[in-house]
Design brief:
InterPro entries: PORR_domain, PORR_fam. This is PORR domain-containing protein. 46% of the residues lie in helices and 10% in strands. The strands form 4 sheets. The chain has a 3-stranded antiparallel β-sheet with strand order 1-3-2. A 3-stranded antiparallel β-sheet has the order 4-6-5. Strands 7-9-8 form a 3-stranded antiparallel β-sheet. Helix 7 packs antiparallel against helix 17. It is globular, with a radius of gyration of 27 Å.
Length: 400
Amino acid sequence: MLSKTQFIFSYLNHNLKPTATNPFINFQTKPISSLKVVWRKDFKLDQAIEIDKRYRLCARVVKEVLNEPGQVIPLRYLEKRRERMGLAVKVRTFLTKNPGLFTSYYDKIKPKTQPVEFIRVSDRLKDFLEEEERVYSENEHWIMSKLCKLLMMSKDRVLSVDKLVHVKREFGFPNDFLVNLVPKYPQYFRLVGCPGEGQSFLELVSWEPEFAKSVIERRAEEESRLMGIRVRPNFHVKLPSGFFLRKEMREWVRDWMELDYVSPYEDVSQLDQASREMEKRTVGVFHELLSLSLHKRVPVPILGKFSDEYRFSNAFSSVFTRHSGIFYMSLKGGIKTAMLREAYKGDKLIDRDPLLQIKDKFAELLEEGWRVRAEQLSLENYSDHEWQGWLQDQALQVLI
């Protein structure tokens, strides 16, 4: 009876036959850097990024206002930041198209100036912000464990605070995690330096064995429990329909899959950077990082910021195309984004992070505003139609 791992990459072995002169294929003759896989567009996974585009844009505008003193800002000041926020339309047009986020009022910027239009968060947005706090509170242990895992995978168990702040949105960390969350867990974290000065770091104080198991390892343990036999930890390989790998690449991947899994939490300082074992570990780190991210995807430039901490090679991005059955590298929006294939079914995310409740609540807020606006436009169009009908009736009366 074939093992689960053999089933997983049986597709890769299709039509693979050793020659008579060399019945045992030597898979180490080709260096990793010479193994190329042609990038192929995946429309469904690209669509998954496109679906969230409107929500991300609205979130940027909300963040801009929330960062202001008193969470209010003159409309004309916000207009000056339109390009930075990535708004393709004027702010007033954006507000009209997305009702429910803000309310407007008039006030003076200075005592002797004329009143100008200000915008502030709406009552519905305030309700959402309270709900956001509740979700963060309920999932505090999960957020703390994510932070521990990021530190535990790094070579020195330490990461730059500036880099962590830069990736907080990708991993779902609250804005105030350094101020309100880190100090609650002195048994795990030590903050060195002053955040914001460029020389501050977050250190791991103690190793937590509970967190030192990857998604791959936990999955193998669960499958072993259900099947009653030991299942080796390994990656799920799922090539998209119609995708073709050259024979030498199929051979290399088959052999590479048979290598022992290298946990991203293991010390690999002794491994050669160009070895297949290091490739196995690198793929494992990327798999774990993407698994910990909110949407199981992270822009490649953001991952590149951690090359030194996680021992990535200078050409690390080639891993995503070389292992196209595990990852997909989207070029949507002109930005390379690494995605975890197994986390998606078509364009739908099936492996959902509990913190995505926040995004779901925000989406409900936006969609309610869009629905109300659509109804208003429908009524206005109906009224215009009635008015045109009345005018036509009057014209007919005159003619009669």
